[in-house]
Design a protein that fits this description.
Blueprint: H1 2-53, H2 55-60, H3 72-78, H4 80-85, H5 122-139, H6 146-156, H7 159-167, H8 171-184, H9 189-203, H10 222-238, H11 240-249, E1 257-258, H12 262-271, H13 273-304, H14 315-333, E2 336-337, H15 348-354, H16 360-383, H17 390-423, H18 433-436
Antiparallel strand pairs: 1-2
Helix pairs in contact: 1-5, 1-6, 5-8, 6-15, 8-9, 8-14, 9-10, 12-13, 13-17, 14-15, 14-17, 15-16, 16-17
């Protein structure tokens, strides 16, 4: 009787937990559908505004610096087909682009010209890129809650994301690939590694997203990391001259930008090149010192709270590492246009979860990161209306830069702690040979014969 009662209680418990899991999955699916519906409604509103007021006036509502004809960044790529037809190398001369900008993408993109892609396909490619981007935002959170869905919606509607949509920049497609790798990693690390490597081949900076492979099962992925590293080194060696052209052809700015090079460029434009060079050296030293300090703080943190991050292998934590690594890596490399902040969206679901984390340090850092991300994504919209007010514009610029640096510092510490904690995870250490040897079945006893 007692045994039967225990079995019945276990069945009830299992049934209750199973029912709770199903209810949670249903709620997550509902919020994913709600997020997709919100994106669809937003797209309809934008289309109505475009039809009523026009391209410049609609995107001007977000303060985006509009360029015409539409989808300006994509035209450097599609216009390269015309330059190639003239016998020119679009990475050196690109008259097919309406602004004469050289093509600063790896040559793999020029394979599109072989299938007939040209300027006439700009609108179609841009619309498909935007649709894929919105679908990827809905797909990468594993089980989105109401708070996560709301924060993602606020992020997608931000001016920084609108900037990328207005330009139809190829970063939208890179986001799709990185988000696809997050989803693929749930089932196949190999497929995820291939996707990230393809993203690297197409636009280089997604290489940083490879840190998403750090985690509880990182020890099983060392061979994948080794293959990835060899592929990267081979690609860099084979295309080094092209990489120099890409760097030289990349435009940089001070407004609608983030990175270690933004403040020095602003100083150079106001006070002269010599002051700008000095500021660049100082900013670079400060940024790299902060990165090293983040690693040291992460090591100390992982020793004090070894289970805070090391055992966290959820899909949201994978997305966080990928998005945070892209932001931190591109921040250290110099100046980036704000549309690249779309990768910060990958960090938002996990930061929302950590808002109420048991660890006080993690809770404070995640709140700083989430608050800084919100201001960074939205602050640029205020800069253009404040253009006539010199003091206000400078104040907004300073606040935006402070938010960028705060986001860089907080994400650096959390990212480093996550990687260090996973490396210290006992599951990633070599097991004794006796533990690795398969267990032999026990010999049957006399009573079993």
């Amino acid at each position: 009787m007692l045994g039967g009662g225990a079995a019945s209680a276990g069945a009830v418990t299992d049934g209750t937990s199973g029912r709770g899991a199903r209810e949670q999955a249903t709620a997550s699916s509902s919020w994913r559908v709600a997020l997709l519906a919100a994106f669809a409604c937003s797209a309809v509103v934008v289309l109505v505004l475009l039809a009523t007021f026009g391209w410049a006036e609609t995107w001007g509502l977000w303060g985006v610096p509009v360029m015409l004809p539409h989808f300006a960044d994509l035209r450097a790529l599609t216009g390269g087909a015309e330059s190639g037809a003239l016998g020119l190398d679009p990475m050196l001369q690109n008259p097919g682009d309406p602004w004469g900008r050289v093509l600063n993408y790896p040559r793999l993109w020029q394979m599109l010209y072989e299938v007939g892609i040209g300027p006439g396909d700009t609108t179609a490619i841009g619309c498909v890129s935007i649709a894929l981007f919105l679908a990827a935002v809905c797909a990468f959170p594993e089980r989105p809650s109401r708070a996560q869905a709301a924060v993602l919606l606020v992020g997608v509607l931000s001016p920084a994301v609108a900037f990328g949509l207005e330009r139809a920049n190829t970063d939208l497609l890179m986001f799709c690939l990185v988000a696809s790798a997050v989803v693929a990693l749930r089932r196949s690390p190999v497929a995820a590694g291939v996707i990230v490597f393809v993203a690297f081949l197409l636009k280089l900076f997604p290489l940083a997203a490879g840190l998403m492979f750090a985690g509880r099962d990182a020890c099983r992925r060392r061979w994948l990391v080794a293959c990835f590293a060899l592929g990267v080194l081979a690609y860099v060696a084979l295309t080094f001259d092209d990489l120099r052209l890409i760097v030289a052809g990349t435009q940089r700015g001070t407004s609608w930008s983030y990175g270690v090079g933004v403040v020095p460029r602003a100083i150079a434009s106001h006070y002269g090149a010599s002051w700008g060079r000095a500021a660049a050296v100082l900013a670079t030293l400060v940024a790299w010192a902060a990165a090293v300090g983040a690693v040291l703080a992460a090591v100390r943190w992982s020793r004090r709270e070894p289970r805070t991050l090391g055992s966290d292998a959820t899909s949201d934590s994978v997305a966080f590492r990928g998005g945070a690594a892209v932001f931190v890596g591109t921040f250290l490399l110099g100046s980036n246009w704000d549309y690249r902040l779309i990768f910060v969206l990958l960090t938002l679901p996990q930061l929302v979860t950590w808002w109420h984390a048991p660890s006080a340090a993690l809770r404070r850092l995640s709140r700083v990161a989430l608050s800084s991300a919100g201001w960074t994504l939205w602050a640029s919209a205020l800069l253009r209306p404040a253009g006539a007010w010199g003091g206000t514009r400078r104040l907004l610029f300073v606040s935006d830069e402070l938010a960028n640096w705060a986001l860089f510092a907080s994400l650096s510490v959390i990212l480093a702690a996550s990687v260090v904690a996973s490396a210290r995870d006992p599951g990633c250490r070599a097991r004794p040979r006796a533990e690795r040897r398969p267990q032999q079945p026990a010999a049957p006893s006399r009573s079993d014969r």
